């Protein structure tokens, strides 16, 4: 095979974009939802130690999909930038917009520079204000594009399927309990039927403006999640071809151990396979 | 390099993995922001800036109380009447600072950021001893300034979630770190405050008893040390009192502290030297 001497810039960028997109579509989705008291993040993440959702600053949180080492690097850079700004100026001078800009510039430069491999990540930066109208969710893609999202946003995995389900079910200004149920159900939704994601495999966190402390980020532990989600139905009207013939009601947190009629719960820790 | 301007790419230092210490990161990325990295011209600068004075802390079963008076002095002048010298360091610890007020407040801000930074990066909080050692490192870095009269001497206290008790640490200007049992005081009025606490402190004091004991101690410090401010009845300025227990730290509301201070003062109208301890 002969070496091509010339690659058009269009082709070069397309190749890099395809490369990054493929990396991001592996693994599972992350959902960010605006609810009555702030912004809710839900992701399917069997690991208790490697987080996809994290705190950046008082009112700012970070969520990411893609390669762990790359987005972890960006997260730490974000914490450093926020803490440095807060220390040099004041806590109020740390804004989500500034952080999103810094990320966009960084991702954009790396994507278009020939020397570095593009980051295979997609990021949400969310910031809450004093009222729901001031809440912001920014979506940053591997090439440094920034989008301002409203109501809800989904990235990674089968994002479009989950987003479609959320479009149908999302209610503006819903309380936390409803928002968590809708988001968790949407994450388990796929064209081939619905799964009940075990509560231990969920990573859920909120930016909650009703917290009295200045730091508004809070992770929801399994006990709280179990209480919030209550009993969940495994199947939907849509017939699921791969199992779950009748609604196998799950008594949280443990799924009913009926091995044959189990809803098709993916084995934990297989983010290598695409969902669809 | 200083703080990156908006709209620029994150500098390489931000994306380099390594330290989870904010002070170490600043030292590499923006050393001009560190209080210890500044050079001060030769000579004694101690008289140039206000000094904070007395801080006391005492443990009780289930927590620890720290209280600080509100005075800052510059030589014989009262520089400020309502300065705050006791700060929460994080949810389960607090720090009070005696010494050069400007540097002290900056060091507290650095220490607060340091603890929060570690927590966010590592996903877990530092142990109580870890926090105490980090503070020692910050104080040690300030030794050069201390030798030119700009000393900062903190008192660190908090609730140790592992040991399930309140703990107190004192420091010297070289960064020496010493764990204290029961109670301790730092600053110009500390020997009088410590003397008072020796007589007033009981191991079985409850939270409110412990708060009263620290306020009595601050009263005694103000009684004998001109640089320590007593309760200011005309302006209603009372000590800052921080209580840390297993459920976190909180600053007592001014009204609560005022009520305790009023009781203490009323009793001193009868006996100006304060409550009498038993002889045997």
From TrEMBL, chain A:
Its main location: cytoplasm. Residues 264-276 have a biased composition (Pro residues). One of its GO terms (molecular function) is threonine-type endopeptidase activity. It is found in: Cytoplasm. Residues 241-263 have a biased composition (Low complexity). Keywords: Cytoplasm, Hydrolase, Proteasome. SUPFAM superfamilies: N-terminal nucleophile aminohydrolases (Ntn hydrolases). It comes from the Bacteria. Coiled coil: none annotated. NCBIfam families: 20S_bact_alpha (TIGR03691). Component of the proteasome core, a large protease complex with broad specificity involved in protein degradation. The 20S proteasome core is composed of 14 alpha and 14 beta subunits that assemble into four stacked heptameric rings, resulting in a barrel-shaped structure. The two inner rings, each composed of seven catalytic beta subunits, are sandwiched by two outer rings, each composed of seven alpha subunits. The catalytic chamber with the active sites is on the inside of the barrel. Has a gated structure, the ends of the cylinder being occluded by the N-termini of the alpha-subunits. Is capped by the proteasome-associated ATPase, ARC. This is Proteasome subunit alpha. The gene is prcA.
């Amino acid at each position: 095979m002969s070496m091509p001497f010339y690659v058009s810039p269009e082709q070069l960028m397309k190749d890099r974009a395809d490369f990054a997109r493929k990396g991001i579509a592996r693994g599972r989705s992350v959902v960010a939802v605006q609810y009555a008291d702030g912004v809710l993040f839900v992701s399917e993440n069997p690991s208790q130690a490697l987080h996809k959702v994290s705190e950046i600053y008082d009112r700012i949180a970070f969520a990411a999909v893609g390669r762990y080492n790359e987005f972890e690097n960006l997260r730490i850079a974000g914490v450093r930038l926020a803490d440095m700004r807060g220390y040099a100026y004041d806590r109020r001078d740390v804004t989500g917009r500034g952080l999103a800009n810094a990320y966009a510039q960084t991702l954009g430069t790396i994507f278009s520079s020939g020397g570095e491999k593009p980051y295979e990540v997609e990021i949400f930066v969310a910031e809450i204000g004093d009222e729901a109208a001031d809440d912001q969710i920014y979506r940053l893609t591997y090439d440094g594009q920034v989008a301002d999202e409203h109501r809800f946003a989904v990235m990674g995995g089968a994002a479009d399927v989950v987003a479609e389900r959320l479009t149908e079910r999302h209610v503006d200004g819903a309380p936390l309990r409803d928002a968590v149920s809708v988001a968790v159900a949407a994450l388990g939704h796929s064209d081939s039927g619905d799964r009940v994601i075990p509560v231990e495999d969920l990573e859920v966190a909120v930016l909650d403006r009703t917290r009295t402390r200045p730091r508004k980020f809070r992770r929801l532990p399994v006990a709280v999640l179990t209480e919030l989600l209550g009993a969940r139905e495994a199947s939907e009207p849509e017939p699921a071809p791969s199992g779950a013939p009748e609604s196998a009601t799950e008594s949280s947190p443990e799924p009913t151990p009926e091995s044959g009629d189990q809803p098709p719960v993916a084995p934990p820790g297989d983010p290598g396979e695409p969902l669809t | 390099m200083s703080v990156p301007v908006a709209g620029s790419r994150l500098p390489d230092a931000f994306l380099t993995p390594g330290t989870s210490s904010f002070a170490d990161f600043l030292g590499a990325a923006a050393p001009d922001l560190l209080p210890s990295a500044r050079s001060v011209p030769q000579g004694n600068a101690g008289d140039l800036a206000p000094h904070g004075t007395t801080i006391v802390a005492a443990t009780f079963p289930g927590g620890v109380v720290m209280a600080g008076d509100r005075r800052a002095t510059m030589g014989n002048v009262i520089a400020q009447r309502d300065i705050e010298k006791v700060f929460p360091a994080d949810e389960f610890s607090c720090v009070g600072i005696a010494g050069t007020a400007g540097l002290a407040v900056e060091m507290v801000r650095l220490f607060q950021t340091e603890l929060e930074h570690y927590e966010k990066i590592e996903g877990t909080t530092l142990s109580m001893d870890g926090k105490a050692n980090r503070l020692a490192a910050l104080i040690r870095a300030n030794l050069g300034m201390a030798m030119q009269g700009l000393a900062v001497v903190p008192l660190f206290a908090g609730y140790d979630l592992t040991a399930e008790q309140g703990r107190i640490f004192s420091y010297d200007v070289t960064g020496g770190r010493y764990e204290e049992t029961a109670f301790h005081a730092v600053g110009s009025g500390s020997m009088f405050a410590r003397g008072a606490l020796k007589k007033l402190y009981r191991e079985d004091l409850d939270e409110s008893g412990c708060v009263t004991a620290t306020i009595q101690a601050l009263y005694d410090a103000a009684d004998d040390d001109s640089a320590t401010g007593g309760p200011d009845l005309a302006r209603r300025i009372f000590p800052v009192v921080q209580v840390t227990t297993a459920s976190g730290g909180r600053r007592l509301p001014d009204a609560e502290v005022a009520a305790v201070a009023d009781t203490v003062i009323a009793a001193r109208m009868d006996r100006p030297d304060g409550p009498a301890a038993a002889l045997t």
